[in-house]
Design brief:
Blueprint (H helix, E strand, L loop, with lengths): L1 E5 L7 H10 L1 H5 L3 E2 L7 H12 L6 H11 L6 E5 L11 E2 L2 E2 L3 H11 L4 E8 L2 H9 L4 H10 L7 H11 L5 E5 L3 H13 L12 H6 L2 H13 L5 H15 L2 H4 L10 H18 L5 E4 L2
Parallel strand pairs: 1-3, 1-6, 2-3, 6-7, 7-8
Antiparallel strand pairs: 4-5
Helix pairs in contact: 3-5, 5-8, 9-12, 11-12
Protein name: Sulfotransferase family protein
Amino acid sequence: MQVIIHCGAHGTEEDRLLKTLLRNRSTFANNATVVPGPGRYRALLRKCLEALEQGAFAPETNGALWDAILDEETAERVVLSNVNFWGSRRQALKDNVLYPAAEHRIALTQNLFPDDDLHIHLTLRNPAAFIPTLLRDAAPERAHELRHGCDPRQTRWSDLLIRLRSSAPTVPITVWCYEDLPFIWASILRHIGGLPEGTRLQGGLDVLASVMSREGMRRLRAYLKVHDTISEPHKRRVYAAFLDKYAEDDALEEELDVPEWSEVLIEEATQRYEDDLQLISTLDGVTLIAP
């Protein structure tokens, strides 16, 4: 069984991704892929991982977990999504280290699914924008830690991926950028579900619609209806052209409300993020989906 684990990250449209996957369950099912509702497995999966950690895991529990996940469905591929898989929002960053518990969690997961083919999927985001999302509803002590103890210029996704590849070299990782979501949303959904490129899905333009005017989306849908055979790379160029003309400016602006950060710091962090993506694209066992 292929077990696709979508791990977030926090603040990267993770809820929208799961909801859109669930909207297309029947399409995925036709391709032997099951997308169970999170209520069927999240609590039980957490308990199983805790039992493994404590050395109290009973082998028969694995069967109970699979019964809950599949619910009498048959599949060759199952998609599990949980933004807190490697830790809560509070545990997402410490001393510039992204998801410090990730290696430990993936080792436990391998033990939980010893005979299955694990795949990790993750959305990356510019640390200069990612860290502010962690500030939302943060306690004063945590907010102070993020503002003064974490530097977006020193926070690198490649470090996380290298750690994961070192600790679990047999587990392939697929990543993409939050900033690219309007252009590659449908491709991400298809990749997670194991569908051929070009398969039509419900909600494939939802992220693009969230940053484009209604008039722009109306014109785009009309264009795509007439030009329904264009390739995926061609579509992305079309999306970019329409977004350039019809973007909702407010929707595209990132709110980076960290008074301690200067504009120069944010620019440096953004450049280092772009450099980091170049490194990530060369990592063995890591696939970067890009426009």
